[in-house]
Amino acid sequence: MKSKTGVLLINLGTPDSPSVSDVRSYLSQFLNDPRVIDIPWLLRKILVNLIIVPFRAPKSAKIYQKLWTANGSPLLFYSERVKTLLEDSLGSDYEVHLAMRYKNPSIPAVLETMRKKHYEKIIVLPMFPQYASASTGSAHDEVMRVLRTWWVIPEVKFISQYYDHPLFIEAFAERGRKYNIADYDHVLFSYHGLPERQVDKVHDDGACARHDCQHTVNEENQYCYKATCYATTRLLAAKLNIPAEKYTVCFQSRLDKKWLMPFSDEVVRQCGDKGMKKILVFSPAFTADCLETIIEIGDEYQEIFHEHGGQKVQLVESLNDSPTWIDCLRDLVKGPANK
Ligand SMILES: C=CC1=C(C)c2cc3[nH]c(cc4nc(cc5[nH]c(cc1n2)c(C)c5CCC(=O)O)C(CCC(=O)O)=C4C)c(C)c3C=C
Ligand SMILES: [Fe+2]
Ligand SMILES: [Fe+2]
């Protein structure tokens, strides 16, 4: 008997609507995750529920209102498109489901639908190219929490990262080729930030700084987010012939000062202060455009650059529903090309 394989695509999640109450509920679920705010339980409850969420929710809701389109949140819209396109591309032996780590469609609800399908095998595929405990780790953790309650546990494959997959790199390079890179004074590769202690914890000696993560990926640091962000950048820069002196790797969306450096907003400021007029920004930790790309890079960094004498911050569109991105996901599910 030939049974189907169920593929579970997982993205980060987005509020149900841009209202303050829905944004509050989203932030509360997100920031109470011990893999996201990795501090002792009581401290996290106080910090998140009494300080961060009450202050942040009204401000974030205003930003989400700017982001929202007739199709809703871009992150959810593009993730749903990818689900449909990947299912078409995989053919009849596979069924693809989409869940969000926070809010909806939730991982428990989607897994319950999948349980009733009696798949022989489930492939869990988070839409994060570089592993971080706060993104991929958390998605896997939540899937395992639910699967633990099942009586029948089928074969399960967890895909943890693909920061160097040739089709992932090619899909981003294609996005970059829409722009004449020679027209830009500088190129930024701006990744979502992380607290330094979260990358420290990947290393056996608890200190990312003692390793050469900026330049090499090896067995010891292969799940260090900083190392894989730099590795993605090197591959993309090589593909697009961007010399080392023309680009900077930086980290955005920090919540405090002890996050990975350099900070993207400060690099944008420095580019303006140096007299640069046009900068091109890739954001290869995100596979779908979202608040962090459209608003933070497209609007907020544009404003900072302008205030510092610059003219244009050009965001390179994320992978969204790119055919090469779909080929990459198909390859991750099926194994190397045409298997
Ligand atoms: C690469 C993937 C992501 C990692 C790693 C990640 C870590 C991380 N994020 C926060 C705090 C926030 N992130 C927010 C939005 C957001 N984050 C990601 C991805 C990763 N986050 C995405 C795709 C988005 C956008 C979602 C959307 O709806 O478009 C937000 C909410 C927005 C805001 O209020 O600014 C917060 C907060 C932390 C603390 C963290 C790791 C410790
Ligand atoms: Fe985030
Ligand atoms: Fe590291």
Automatic annotation (TrEMBL):
Secretion signal span: none
Location of the protein in the cell: Cytoplasm
Binding positions for Fe(2+) per the UniProt entry: H192, E292
Gene designation per UniProt: hemH
Entry keyword Iron: yes
SUPFAM superfamilies associated with the record: Chelatase
Entries under CDD domains matching the protein: Ferrochelatase_C (cd00419), Ferrochelatase_N (cd03411)
Top-rank lineage group of the source organism: Bacteria
Species per Swiss-Prot/TrEMBL record: Dawidia soli
Protein name as annotated: Ferrochelatase
Entry similarity comment: Belongs to the ferrochelatase family.
PANTHER family, alphabetized: FERROCHELATASE (PTHR11108), FERROCHELATASE, MITOCHONDRIAL (PTHR11108:SF1)
This protein's UniProt keywords: Cytoplasm, Heme biosynthesis, Iron, Lyase, Metal-binding, Porphyrin biosynthesis
Protein's pathway: Porphyrin-containing compound metabolism; protoheme biosynthesis; protoheme from protoporphyrin-IX: step 1/1
Pfam families: Ferrochelatase
UniProt catalytic activity: heme b + 2 H(+) = protoporphyrin IX + Fe(2+); Fe-coproporphyrin III + 2 H(+) = coproporphyrin III + Fe(2+)
GO molecular function: ferrochelatase activity; metal ion binding
